[in-house]
Write a structure and sequence with these properties.
203 residues, alpha+beta, Nucleotidyltransferase, domain 5, 3 domains, 4-stranded antiparallel β-sheet, 7 helices, Transposable element Tcb1 transposase
Length: 203
């Protein structure tokens, strides 16, 4: 014990530190610290699977709301970044959802029933069918997101602006049809498309 005290004074270490170093050397034949496992994980595998299920059930849930759920369920102090890392680990990434026309369940059933009604019709049946549709075309650019490459302080330069038109007039509605015999003429629609406009076109 006296030798440990003397060594501690020489190396400016406490007697307990010297004792622990000697004990470690006797046990492992080395004075190096044992390799540690690193920072403990925030969530267990079971908790991570629960987080993954939440976004699978509701992909629109936010990181903040999911973090609050984790705090309430697991009684842990976590931040949104930890939750985001778990989601990325399970191959979930934040993306802008693609747009798709909304079709109700009743409408989907009606369309499927309509398709099944005519699926077994002979080829000649298609000669009496006319397919019609209308579509809107923008005159000035696109309705979607647009980007420009510019340097600082040039946001108001004409070539860096996105031109818009007030009170309509920035797009044109076009109606057309096709049949087995070929494609028909296009009609340019002014105003709202309704049954009266349809009747005028078909005349």
């Amino acid at each position: 014990m006296e030798n440990q005290f003397v060594v501690g004074q020489i190396l400016k270490l406490s007697k307990s530190t010297v004792f622990n170093i000697i004990r470690r050397f006797k046990k492992t034949n080395s004075v190096e610290n044992k390799q540690r496992s690193g920072r403990p994980r925030t969530f267990s595998e079971r908790e991570e699977r629960w987080i993954g299920r939440q976004v699978h059930i509701n992909p629109r849930t936010s990181e903040v709301k999911l973090t609050l759920k984790c705090k309430s369920r697991f009684r842990k102090s976590v931040n949104p970044k930890s939750v985001r890392n778990v989601l990325r680990k399970h191959k979930y990434h934040g993306r802008v959802p693609r747009r798709k026309s909304y079709i109700s369940k009743a409408n989907r059933k009606a369309r499927l029933a309509f398709a099944k009604m005519y699926v077994k019709q002979p080829t000649e049946f298609g000669e009496n069918v006319i397919c019609v549709d209308e579509s809107k075309y923008n005159i000035f650019g696109s309705d979607g997101k647009q980007k420009v490459w510019r340097i600082p302080n040039t946001a108001l330069h004409v070539k860096n602006l996105r031109h818009t038109v007030k009170y309509g007039g920035g797009n044109q509605l076009i109606w057309g049809f096709m049949a087995s015999s070929g494609v028909g003429n296009l009609d340019f629609i002014d105003g709202t498309m309704n049954k009266y406009v349809y009747h005028d076109i078909l005349k």
